[in-house]
Design goal:
It is built from 3 helices and 13 strands, in the order ββββαβββββββαββα. The protein has 200 residues and is α+β, with helices and mostly antiparallel strands. The protein is globular. Helices cover 26% and strands 28% of the residues. The longest helix has 21 residues, at 51-71. The strands form 4 sheets. The protein has a 5-stranded mixed sheet with strand order 5-8-9-12-13. It has one domain: Lambda Exonuclease, Chain A. α2 (143-155) crosses α3 (179-195).
Amino acid sequence: MKKEHGSRQTARNGTVYAETESQPQSSKMFVDDELTFKRWSLKSDRVVRTASVLYGLEHENEAAELYARTFGRNVYRVGLVINPSCAFLGCSPDRRVLDLDTTSSEWGLLEIKCTTHTSVTECDYLQKPRGNGGKLALKITHSYYYQVMAQMGLTGSSWCDFFVYATSDYHLERINFDEQFFNDMMTKVTNFYFSHYLQC
């Protein structure tokens, strides 16, 4: 679609630490400031300043404001989320969303991807699957799908709005939580953590 110009409840199985409007602008895990992204590995951590990372950090607020204004939803900044049932994992959703018009749970998440592409049709992680009426959708085999599914599972959210912000248009789709997908993913992650990571 073309661009326009011009407190939270307890999670189902976890605890969420959210910012209020008076708190600092940046609270994301692995972010030291607005233009610094820290990537952690098994052996060490180092600062990564790729063009795509910097672009995303610079335009995230703009994208969130467009989403909220266009769809009439309230968005709230979120800090690091730790689920007590698996405290070795954490996530930091881009925003917490209050959607009063939905027929399901009013609270959900917002994941923002800012791209330098002119159109979202150029993004390789989006496709037009059969039976979707020719509409773009996030590939379920892509790491972004695993990301949003993990965020929903760890925060106890039933849905996440996936918002792609290109320079001339945007893409929005609501991804619903898939418990079986999340459980399968958690089995693999848990096995990796305890059987391999802790052994290093």
